[in-house]
Specification:
globular, 9 strands, binds iron/sulfur cluster, alpha/beta, TIM Barrel, two-stranded antiparallel sheet
Length: 299
C-alpha cells in the first residue's frame, strides 16, 4: 500500500515512462546574497545558491550535455527542465521569457519547473508563465522552508510567510502547478513547528511539496554555528519522526516530490546519516506501515 502520494507515480501516470530532472542554471543572483536584502544568504546556502554552478555555460549547452548524459547513463527520454540555482525570477519578465523560449526547442523536455523566492515573483512573471504554459507545461517552486516567521528570521530568509502566501495564491488561482520547498530540522524548531508548516500548506492547497532534511555544508554560516557548538543537526530518528508527522498532516492530494536531499560530493559537514537517502526513506515507510499511517490522515 502506498503510504504517501509520490511524485514518481504522478510522473509515470502522466507520461507512462520515467522522467528525470535536468537542473539548469540561468546565472542569476539572489537578493539575499548580493546585498539587496542581505549579503549573507540563508544560513544553510553555499555560494552557488544550492544548485549546480553552471552560470557561465549557455542554457542550450547545459541542456544538450546533461540530456545526453542522462540518456546514456539512465536510459531516459523525457525530462523536466528545472531552473534550480539561486532565484530564477530575480530578473526581468523579458529575460525569463527569452530563456524559457529556448526550452521550447527540445521536445524531450515535457515539463518545466522554476525554483525561486516568493518575494521576487511578480504578476508580470506570472504572465510570462501563463503564455509559456500554452506551449509547454510549467510549474513553479517557491522556497518557504518554514511557515514560522521567527524561524525565517533565524535562518536569514529575509522574507515572511505572508510573501509566500501571496505568491502561492497568485499561481494557484491561475492553475499553475505550485510546489513548496520546506526543511525539517531548522534551528529552534521542533516537531510542532513542522506540523504547523504542513497544516499551512494543506490550507493553501499547494500542489506539491519538497521536503529536505537540514544538513550542513562547507562554507555556510550554519557550518560556523556548528563548529562553535551553537547548532547541532537533529538525529536520524527525530528526522524520521518529524517527516512522518509532516506527511500525515499534509492533505492527501498534495504530491510529495522528495523526503530528503543530496549534499554535493565532498561538501557535507554533518549529519552523516544524510548520506544514506534510501535508509531514511525506507525507515519513514517502515514506521508508516507499522503504525498504519497514511498521508493526510490528520489533515
Ligand atoms: S534564497 Fe536561495 S539562493 Fe538565496 S541565499 Fe537563500 S537558499 Fe541561497
Amino acid at each position: 500500500m502506498e503510504r504517501y502520494n509520490r511524485f514518481s507515480k504522478y510522473l509515470r501516470s502522466r507520461f507512462r515512462e520515467k522522467v528525470l530532472k535536468l537542473t539548469l542554471d540561468l546565472g542569476l543572483g539572489c537578493p539575499n546574497r548580493d546585498g539587496t536584502l542581505s549579503s549573507e544568504g540563508c544560513i544553510y546556502c553555499d555560494e552557488f545558491g544550492s544548485g549546480p554552478d553552471s552560470s557561465m555555460i549557455p542554457i542550450d549547452e547545459q541542456i544538450k550535455t546533461r540530456m545526453e548524459l542522462l540518456k546514456q547513463k539512465r536510459g531516459v527520454n523525457k525530462f523536466i527542465g528545472y531552473f534550480q540555482s539561486y532565484t530564477n525570477t530575480y530578473c526581468s519578465p523579458e529575460f525569463l521569457e527569452e530563456k524559457l523560449s529556448i526550452l521550447l526547442n527540445y521536445p524531450e523536455i515535457v515539463l518545466v519547473y522554476i525554483g525561486t523566492r516568493p518575494d521576487t515573483f511578480t504578476k508580470e512573471h506570472l504572465e510570462v508563465i501563463k503564455r509559456f504554459k500554452v506551449q509547454k507545461d510549467i510549474g513553479i517552486e517557491f522556497g518557504l522552508q518554514s511557515a514560522r516567521n521567527e524561524t525565517l528570521e533565524k535562518i536569514n530568509r529575509q522574507h515572511k510567510f505572508e510573501d509566500f502566501e501571496t505568491a502561492v495564491k497568485l499561481t494557484i488561482s491561475e492553475g499553475i502547478f505550485t510546489t513548496a520547498h520546506i526543511i525539517i530540522g531548522l534551528p529552534g524548531e521542533d516537531i510542532s513547528d513542522n506540523i504547523y508548516t504542513a497544516q499551512e500548506l494543506s490550507r493553501l492547497q499547494v500542489h506539491s511539496v519538497k521536503i529536505h532534511q537540514l544538513y550542513i555544508i562547507k562554507g555556510t554560516h550554519l557550518e560556523k554555528l556548528f563548529l562553535s557548538r551553537e547548532f547541532s543537526p537533529i538525529s536520524f530518528e527525530s528526522a524520521v519522526e518529524r517527516t512522518v508527522a509532516v506527511l500525515i498532516n499534509l492533505d492527501k492530494r498534495i504530491i510529495i516530490q522528495r523526503l530528503t536531499g543530496d549534499p554535493k560530493p565532498g561538501q557535507l559537514v554533518s549529519p552523516d546519516w544524510i548520506r544514506d537517502k534510501h535508509r531514511f526513506i525506507n525507515m519513514v515507510e517502515k514506521i508508516m506501515n507499522e503504525k498504519n499511517l497514511t498521508q493526510g490522515q490528520f489533515s
